[in-house]
Specification:
By secondary structure, the chain is of the alpha/beta class. The protein has a single domain, classed as Spore Coat Polysaccharide Biosynthesis Protein SpsA, Chain A (Alpha-Beta Complex). The chain is about 30% helix and about 20% strand. It contains nine helices and twelve strands. The strands form two sheets. Strands 1, 4, 5, 6, 7, 8, 9, 10, 11 and 12 form a ten-stranded mixed β-sheet that branches. The protein has a two-stranded antiparallel ribbon with strand order 2-3.
């Protein structure tokens, strides 16, 4: 199996709408973004890790931590749009020559405990599948306590592993059953906030039509689904905490304190 050229792109900005400045929030003595970049750098498959940001401050910090940074427009509306704006430069960083055979892995800048093994698993999945997928994302079996939490993204899967839809609501709906008991009747899949893109898909990002679903759920992957671009999935053992709320930030700090003991 020949490995595809691969690069990790981490989109980040300071002006988060729900938790401003969260990427620099202290988690166990380190800014969250530093933890993300260090976790990505520990993966074996990528040729490079690149921060994509509209913040000169974040870019300078990344370089101090030994990670390259590319400056992007502040007008980018999502992480995927941000890395799409520098896709050609990312292909070069991956060592690729053909965008249709180059993998760009989008790791969100709010995942302080990203598992390098999941990044490597993503690269392996892309390399072993034929034809090369357009987009892949990892999913995990969701515990009952998360099914009705709107801050945890759910994934509805087809029998072959294709992602049919992503939502902040529980999917599927279990008709005739009290929602508290739904997890006893079907498997709910959670979405790990990680996307693997064929670089040529990202190069077409700005040409994709406006997505009412993306706007409604505030989930950028719905733009792809609404445009007819397939998103495959592969299962992983557990989730990677994404910090979107003050509660999740405190959860991250508690995890870091436990790891330090």
């Amino acid at each position: 199996m020949m490995s595809l050229p691969c690069v990790v792109a981490v989109p980040a900005r300071l002006e988060s709408s729900r938790l401003p400045g969260k990427v620099l929030a202290d988690i166990g003595g380190k800014p969250m973004l530093q933890r993300v970049l260090e976790g990505c750098a520990a993966a074996q498959a990528p040729a490079a890790v690149v921060l994509c940001t509209d913040s000169q401050d974040l870019a300078e910090r990344a370089r101090q931590w030994g990670v390259e940074a590319l400056l992007t427009s502040p007008a980018c509306e999502s992480g995927s749009e941000r890395i799409a704006s520098v896709a050609e430069q990312l292909v070069a960083r991956a060592g690729g020559s053909d965008p249709a055979r180059t993998l760009i892995i989008n790791v969100q800048g709010d995942q302080p405990f990203i598992d390098p093994a999941v990044i490597d698993a993503m690269a392996a999945e892309f390399s072993r599948r034929s034809p090369t997928p357009e987009v892949l994302t990892p999913v995990y079996r969701m515990g009952a306590e998360k099914v009705h939490n709107p801050n945890v993204v759910k994934t509805l899967l087809a029998a072959d592993g294709r992602a049919l839809y992503f939502s902040r609501s529980a999917l599927p709906h279990v008709r005739g059953v009290d929602p508290a008991h739904w997890p006893a009747h079907t498997t709910f899949w959670g979405h790990v906030g990680l996307y693997g893109y064929r670089a040529d898909v990202l190069q077409r990002w700005n040409a994709l039509p406006h997505s009412p679903l993306e706007h409604t759920e505030k989930l950028e992957q719905l733009r792809l689904i609404e445009a007819g671009i397939g998103i495959g999935s592969f299962p992983v053992a557990g989730e990677s905490l994404s910090v979107d709320t003050a509660e999740q930030l405190e959860q991250a700090r508690a995890i870091a304190a436990g790891l330090a003991r």
